[in-house]
Amino acid sequence: MPSLADPVRSRALGRTGLSVSEIGLGCASWWGQKAFDEREAVNLVHAALERGVTFLDTGAAYSGGGAEPRLGRALKGRNLERVVVATKAGTFHDGRRVARDFRPQAIIASVERSLRNLGLERLPLLQLHGPAISELDDEMLATLEELKRRGLVGAVGANSFDPAVIDHIIGLAVFDVVMVDYNVLRPERAALIARAAQQGKGVLAGMALAMGHANRQVMRLRAPRDVWYALRALKNHRGDIAKGARFGFLGRLDGLSASQAALAYVLADPHVSCAVVGTTRMAHLIDNLGASGVTLSPAVMDQIRRAQGVE
Ligand SMILES: NC(=O)c1ccc[n+]([C@@H]2O[C@H](COP(=O)([O-])OP(=O)(O)OC[C@H]3O[C@@H](n4cnc5c(N)ncnc54)[C@H](OP(=O)(O)O)[C@@H]3O)[C@@H](O)[C@H]2O)c1
User: Fold this and answer.
1) Whole-angstrom distance, CA of residue 54 vs CA of residue 7
2) 3-class secondary structure, 49
């Protein structure tokens, strides 16, 4: 049974020279929305940092554009020496919806805006947010190199839930990190993750709880935010409802919550450096941090594989 006294463990992030906590905090979604009280949002970041979280993930387009400046306010005055603040470029919020612009000059402008929003002089990790393969042309690769050379960006990564895009990125030298959608519902990503690691790329697991499908939380509607999350999951990942239903047993394990078990599964892959989880509840944050250092028993791993249909 994990306890709060157990520190969150860290792992190397590929060959970046960075070390990141096994559990990262996603500063996105409801967390960055105006409707979510800023003090609560900031408290979550501070609590995460105090408990050893060193990976914070956000994006220019997240939460209607509100996530990045909110994270900047939360980080003001904090010691960020060991903290990897990661943001994304290529998408932005145009006031009505998420729009995309992967022209090199737009990426540079996005980096400059992110630095101001976050109050940083250098972004430890910049990730392209869902690029198309055709957008990763020579000019883009040279732009990313130049951002590194100018010291505006430390490492460069890309986030995509399209395995073909990740496969392509694995072969591009300028990319140090990939963020993939890896969770109990996506065991098929393991081979891609292994290929990325073999090429020296750091691997981040985004959507580590499958937007609440993995821990069966997504249909528990206790507050307006839960309705928002449920609608998002239905819109983006309707197909995961049936898959998620097979993992009800994760909520009945001795000494582990469903979320801890789902995150421990992600972290059982040694190639994954960090499982990134979004939360707006302190109890959930603390619960999630308890997954660091947990080893699932062979019997539970077998049960997971059976539920995945992988035996
Ligand atoms: N989803 C995407 O399309 C996407 C894309 C790129 C990157 N990412 C990155 O990956 C991060 C994580 O993805 P995500 O937020 O979409 O999905 P997620 O982390 O898989 O799931 C978040 C959902 O799980 C709930 N939750 C978290 N901890 C819980 C716990 N211990 N017990 C019960 N419920 C819990 C949250 O609700 P509460 O607020 O109630 O805890 C929220 O509904 C993002 O924050 C972002 O940084 C996501």
Assistant:
1) 12
2) helix
63-77, 111-125, 164-178, 231-245 — which is least confidently predicted?
A: 231-245
The residue whose CA has the least distance to atom 10 of ligand 1 is 206
Distance in Å, CA 179 to ligand 1 centroid: 14
In short, whether 280's Cβ falls inside 6 Å of ligand 1 is yes
Helical packing angle, 258-267 and 282-289, nearest 10°: 40
Beta partners for residue 129, in sequence order: 159
Rounded-to-integer distance, Cα 90 and Cα 100, Å: 6
Q: Is the CB of 63 under 6 A from ligand 1?
A: no
E-assigned strand segments in 104-235: 123-129, 153-159, 177-181, 202-206
Express each pLDDT in 185-208 by its tens digit: 999 999 999 999 999 999 999 999
Residue nearest to atom 25 of ligand 1 (CA): 212
Q: Provide the residue type at 272 as one letter.
A: V
Q: Domain boundaries in the chain? A: 10-308
3.20.20.100, 3.60.150.10, 3.40.50.10330, 3.40.50.2000: which CATH number matches 10-308?
A: 3.20.20.100
* C-beta separation of 183 from 261 below 8 A: no
The Cα–Cα gap between 264 and 262 comes to 6
Q: Are 257 and 279 in contact (CB under 8 A)?
A: no
What is the rounded CA–CA span in Å between residue 275 and residue 204? 6
Q: Any idea what DSSP says for residue 244?
A: H
Calpha distance 63→306 (Å, rounded): 36
